[in-house]
């Protein structure tokens, strides 16, 4: 069961030399440039990608992870309506006896 925390480490594979290196992704910003440690190539995101992690990493950046998680239905969620209406036990429509009826407690009190 995956937790809610995004993955903050991604392995970037250089498309030029194939060097793979695990980098920590910043959560507050997208990393637009990445210097390959193998060949020194300056990697930039592909068109349509927001950062180099989305283009060359094995894990998209945290904002994209959150967006994908919000867009996709979460697997393993219980079906809605299961056991919700069957065991309520206290329906609000049934008024308790003696609260709003004509005979209130103490109404028949008459000194005689
Ligand atoms: Zn490289």
Would you kindly provide a brief summary of this structure?
13% of the residues lie in helices and 12% in strands. With 112 residues, it is of the alpha+beta class. The longest helix has 10 residues, at 62-71.
Structure characterization notes:
The chain has 112 residues and is an alpha+beta fold. The chain has a domain at 9-71. It has helices at residues 52-56, 62-71; strands at residues 9-13, 20-24, 34-35, 42-43. It has a two-stranded antiparallel sheet with strand order 1-2. A two-stranded antiparallel ribbon has the order 3-4. Strand 1 and strand 2 form a beta hairpin. The longest helix is centred in the middle third of the chain and has 10 residues, at 62-71. The chain is rod-shaped, with a radius of gyration of 31 Å. The termini are far apart. Zinc ion binds next to loops.
Q: What is Rg?
A: 31 Å
The geometry reads as rod-shaped
The first-to-last residue Cα distance is 75 Å
Bound molecules: zinc ion
Task: Let me know the largest β-sheet.
Answer: 2 strands, antiparallel
Task: Specify the structural class.
Answer: alpha+beta
Q: Helix content range of the residues, please?
A: 10-25%
Total number of helical segments? 2
The arrangement of helices and strands along the chain is EEEEHH
pLDDT < 50 runs, ≥5 residues: none
Q: Which strands sit side by side, in order, in the main sheet?
A: 1-2
Fraction of residues in β-strands: 5-15%
Mean pLDDT over the residues? 79
Find the count of extended strands (DSSP E, 2+ residues).
4
């Amino acid at each position: 069961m995956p937790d809610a925390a995004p993955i903050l480490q991604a392995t970037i594979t250089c498309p030029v030399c194939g060097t793979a290196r695990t980098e920590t992704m910043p959560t507050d910003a997208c990393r637009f440039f990445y210097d390959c440690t193998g060949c020194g190539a300056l990697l930039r995101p592909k068109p349509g990608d927001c950062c180099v992690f989305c283009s060359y990493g094995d894990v998209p950046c945290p904002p994209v992870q959150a967006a994908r998680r919000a867009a996709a239905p979460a697997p393993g969620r219980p079906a809605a309506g299961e056991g919700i209406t069957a065991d309520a036990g206290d329906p609000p429509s049934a008024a308790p006896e003696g609260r709003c009826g004509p005979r209130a407690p103490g109404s028949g009190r008459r000194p005689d």
